[in-house]
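Slide 14.
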Amino acid sequence: MDIQNSIKEILSELPAGVKLVAVSKTKPVEDIRQAYEVGQRVFGENRPQEMAVKSRELPQDIEWHMIGQLQEKNVKYIAPFVRLIHSVDSLKLLQKIDREAEKNGRIIDCLLEFHIAEEMTKSGLSFEEARHILDSEEYAGLNHVRIVGVMGIATYTDNREQIRAEFHHLKQIFEKLEVLFFTDKSYFKEISMGMSEDYNIAVEEGATMVRIGSSIFGSRIYK
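Slide 15: predicted structure.
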Protein backbone atom coordinates (compact mmCIF):
# COMPACT_ATOMS: atom_id res chain seq x y z
CA MET A 1 0.00 0.00 0.00
CA ASP A 2 1.39 3.40 -0.99
CA ILE A 3 0.39 5.25 2.16
CA GLN A 4 1.68 8.65 1.14
CA ASN A 5 0.06 8.74 -2.29
CA SER A 6 -3.19 7.42 -0.85
CA ILE A 7 -3.32 10.30 1.64
CA LYS A 8 -2.53 12.86 -1.05
CA GLU A 9 -5.29 11.46 -3.27
CA ILE A 10 -7.91 11.49 -0.52
CA LEU A 11 -6.97 15.01 0.61
CA SER A 12 -7.29 16.23 -2.97
CA GLU A 13 -10.91 14.99 -2.98
CA LEU A 14 -11.95 16.47 0.37
CA PRO A 15 -13.39 19.98 0.36
CA ALA A 16 -12.00 22.68 2.62
CA GLY A 17 -13.31 22.31 6.14
CA VAL A 18 -13.47 18.50 6.12
CA LYS A 19 -10.83 16.91 8.34
CA LEU A 20 -9.22 13.57 7.47
CA VAL A 21 -8.86 11.24 10.45
CA ALA A 22 -6.39 8.58 9.30
CA VAL A 23 -7.51 5.42 11.08
CA SER A 24 -4.24 3.84 12.19
CA LYS A 25 -5.65 1.20 14.58
CA THR A 26 -3.65 -2.06 14.50
CA LYS A 27 -1.07 -0.39 12.23
CA PRO A 28 2.62 -0.14 13.16
CA VAL A 29 4.32 3.10 14.11
CA GLU A 30 6.31 2.97 10.85
CA ASP A 31 3.11 3.29 8.81
CA ILE A 32 1.99 6.28 10.86
CA ARG A 33 5.39 7.91 10.34
CA GLN A 34 4.94 7.59 6.58
CA ALA A 35 1.62 9.39 6.79
CA TYR A 36 3.11 12.00 9.10
CA GLU A 37 5.88 12.74 6.61
CA VAL A 38 3.36 13.98 4.02
CA GLY A 39 1.67 16.26 6.54
CA GLN A 40 -1.05 14.07 8.08
CA ARG A 41 -1.44 14.99 11.74
CA VAL A 42 -4.79 13.47 12.80
CA PHE A 43 -4.92 9.75 13.60
CA GLY A 44 -7.71 7.57 14.94
CA GLU A 45 -7.25 4.59 17.25
CA ASN A 46 -9.67 2.22 18.98
CA ARG A 47 -7.51 0.66 21.71
CA PRO A 48 -6.57 3.06 24.50
CA GLN A 49 -3.41 1.26 25.60
CA GLU A 50 -2.18 0.98 22.02
CA MET A 51 -2.87 4.68 21.46
CA ALA A 52 -0.95 5.57 24.62
CA VAL A 53 2.11 3.61 23.47
CA LYS A 54 2.04 5.17 20.01
CA SER A 55 1.64 8.67 21.44
CA ARG A 56 4.91 8.23 23.33
CA GLU A 57 6.78 6.92 20.29
CA LEU A 58 5.59 9.48 17.73
CA PRO A 59 5.86 13.29 17.37
CA GLN A 60 4.03 15.33 19.95
CA ASP A 61 2.13 17.47 17.43
CA ILE A 62 -0.02 14.49 16.39
CA GLU A 63 -3.72 14.91 17.16
CA TRP A 64 -5.01 11.60 18.55
CA HIS A 65 -8.68 10.70 18.21
CA MET A 66 -10.35 7.82 20.05
CA ILE A 67 -12.83 6.38 17.56
CA GLY A 68 -13.69 2.97 19.04
CA GLN A 69 -15.87 1.95 21.94
CA LEU A 70 -14.32 3.18 25.16
CA GLN A 71 -14.69 1.40 28.47
CA GLU A 72 -14.69 3.59 31.57
CA LYS A 73 -11.74 1.73 33.09
CA ASN A 74 -9.58 2.63 30.08
CA VAL A 75 -10.18 6.38 29.97
CA LYS A 76 -7.16 6.97 32.22
CA TYR A 77 -4.75 5.75 29.53
CA ILE A 78 -5.70 8.48 27.05
CA ALA A 79 -6.92 11.33 29.27
CA PRO A 80 -3.51 13.09 29.40
CA PHE A 81 -3.30 13.65 25.65
CA VAL A 82 -6.35 12.60 23.57
CA ARG A 83 -7.69 15.44 21.42
CA LEU A 84 -11.17 14.10 20.66
CA ILE A 85 -13.25 11.11 21.78
CA HIS A 86 -15.74 10.20 19.03
CA SER A 87 -17.64 7.42 20.77
CA VAL A 88 -19.42 8.78 23.85
CA ASP A 89 -22.64 6.82 24.27
CA SER A 90 -23.59 7.21 27.94
CA LEU A 91 -23.69 9.69 30.79
CA LYS A 92 -21.54 7.37 32.91
CA LEU A 93 -18.78 7.47 30.32
CA LEU A 94 -18.99 11.26 30.11
CA GLN A 95 -18.71 11.46 33.89
CA LYS A 96 -15.63 9.22 33.87
CA ILE A 97 -13.98 11.28 31.13
CA ASP A 98 -14.75 14.43 33.15
CA ARG A 99 -13.07 13.00 36.27
CA GLU A 100 -9.97 11.88 34.37
CA ALA A 101 -9.75 15.17 32.51
CA GLU A 102 -9.87 17.05 35.82
CA LYS A 103 -7.00 14.94 37.16
CA ASN A 104 -4.95 15.99 34.15
CA GLY A 105 -5.97 19.64 34.28
CA ARG A 106 -7.68 19.43 30.91
CA ILE A 107 -11.00 19.83 29.14
CA ILE A 108 -11.54 16.90 26.76
CA ASP A 109 -13.61 17.36 23.62
CA CYS A 110 -16.15 14.63 22.89
CA LEU A 111 -18.70 13.63 20.27
CA LEU A 112 -21.98 11.94 21.09
CA GLU A 113 -22.27 8.69 19.14
CA PHE A 114 -25.67 7.95 17.60
CA HIS A 115 -27.12 4.69 16.35
CA ILE A 116 -28.09 5.49 12.76
CA ALA A 117 -27.61 2.07 11.12
CA GLU A 118 -30.11 -0.73 10.67
CA GLU A 119 -27.60 -3.17 12.14
CA MET A 120 -28.32 -3.79 15.80
CA THR A 121 -24.65 -4.63 16.43
CA LYS A 122 -23.77 -0.96 15.97
CA SER A 123 -23.77 1.03 19.21
CA GLY A 124 -24.89 4.56 19.92
CA LEU A 125 -27.55 6.77 21.41
CA SER A 126 -31.03 7.56 20.22
CA PHE A 127 -32.00 11.22 19.97
CA GLU A 128 -34.15 10.93 23.08
CA GLU A 129 -31.34 9.31 25.08
CA ALA A 130 -29.00 12.14 24.10
CA ARG A 131 -31.58 14.73 24.99
CA HIS A 132 -32.05 13.11 28.40
CA ILE A 133 -28.28 13.32 29.04
CA LEU A 134 -27.99 16.94 27.95
CA ASP A 135 -31.03 17.93 30.03
CA SER A 136 -29.74 16.27 33.19
CA GLU A 137 -28.36 17.93 36.30
CA GLU A 138 -25.48 15.47 36.19
CA TYR A 139 -24.38 16.73 32.77
CA ALA A 140 -24.75 20.34 33.89
CA GLY A 141 -22.25 19.60 36.67
CA LEU A 142 -19.47 18.45 34.32
CA ASN A 143 -16.72 21.03 33.87
CA HIS A 144 -13.97 19.11 32.11
CA VAL A 145 -15.72 17.72 29.04
CA ARG A 146 -17.04 19.60 26.05
CA ILE A 147 -19.52 18.17 23.54
CA VAL A 148 -18.39 19.47 20.15
CA GLY A 149 -20.59 17.43 17.82
CA VAL A 150 -21.91 14.03 16.80
CA MET A 151 -20.67 10.76 15.32
CA GLY A 152 -22.35 7.86 13.57
CA ILE A 153 -21.61 4.74 11.52
CA ALA A 154 -23.82 3.84 8.57
CA THR A 155 -25.03 0.33 7.75
CA TYR A 156 -22.48 -1.80 5.90
CA THR A 157 -24.38 -2.23 2.66
CA ASP A 158 -24.14 -1.70 -1.09
CA ASN A 159 -27.34 0.34 -0.96
CA ARG A 160 -25.98 3.85 -1.43
CA GLU A 161 -29.35 5.50 -0.89
CA GLN A 162 -29.71 3.80 2.48
CA ILE A 163 -26.25 5.03 3.49
CA ARG A 164 -27.14 8.54 2.31
CA ALA A 165 -30.39 8.49 4.31
CA GLU A 166 -28.55 7.41 7.47
CA PHE A 167 -25.96 10.15 7.12
CA HIS A 168 -28.73 12.66 6.44
CA HIS A 169 -30.43 11.52 9.63
CA LEU A 170 -27.25 12.18 11.63
CA LYS A 171 -27.03 15.68 10.16
CA GLN A 172 -30.64 16.26 11.26
CA ILE A 173 -29.79 15.10 14.78
CA PHE A 174 -26.86 17.52 14.85
CA GLU A 175 -29.10 20.40 13.77
CA LYS A 176 -31.76 19.60 16.40
CA LEU A 177 -29.18 19.41 19.18
CA GLU A 178 -27.63 22.67 18.02
CA VAL A 179 -30.99 24.45 18.31
CA LEU A 180 -31.93 22.87 21.64
CA PHE A 181 -28.63 22.95 23.53
CA PHE A 182 -25.80 24.65 21.66
CA THR A 183 -27.16 27.76 19.94
CA ASP A 184 -24.51 30.02 21.44
CA LYS A 185 -21.68 27.46 21.37
CA SER A 186 -19.44 27.97 18.33
CA TYR A 187 -17.45 24.86 19.24
CA PHE A 188 -20.45 22.61 18.53
CA LYS A 189 -19.64 22.10 14.86
CA GLU A 190 -18.39 18.56 14.18
CA ILE A 191 -20.16 15.76 12.32
CA SER A 192 -17.93 12.68 12.21
CA MET A 193 -19.26 10.24 9.61
CA GLY A 194 -17.96 8.33 6.63
CA MET A 195 -15.28 5.67 6.25
CA SER A 196 -13.29 4.24 3.34
CA GLU A 197 -16.34 2.77 1.60
CA ASP A 198 -18.73 5.71 1.96
CA TYR A 199 -16.88 8.91 2.84
CA ASN A 200 -17.82 10.64 -0.42
CA ILE A 201 -21.51 10.30 0.47
CA ALA A 202 -20.80 11.49 4.02
CA VAL A 203 -19.11 14.62 2.70
CA GLU A 204 -22.09 15.36 0.45
CA GLU A 205 -24.37 15.02 3.49
CA GLY A 206 -22.42 17.41 5.67
CA ALA A 207 -19.54 15.54 7.33
CA THR A 208 -16.86 17.72 8.87
CA MET A 209 -14.65 14.69 9.66
CA VAL A 210 -14.17 11.42 7.79
CA ARG A 211 -12.50 8.37 9.35
CA ILE A 212 -10.49 6.54 6.69
CA GLY A 213 -8.30 3.52 7.36
CA SER A 214 -8.11 0.76 4.76
CA SER A 215 -7.97 3.17 1.81
CA ILE A 216 -4.79 4.61 3.34
CA PHE A 217 -3.10 1.79 5.22
CA GLY A 218 -4.59 -1.31 3.59
CA SER A 219 -6.60 -4.00 5.35
CA ARG A 220 -6.57 -4.16 9.12
CA ILE A 221 -4.21 -6.44 10.98
CA TYR A 222 -6.08 -8.42 13.62
CA LYS A 223 -4.17 -9.80 16.57
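Speaker note: Residues 45 and 51 are 6 Å apart (CA to CA).
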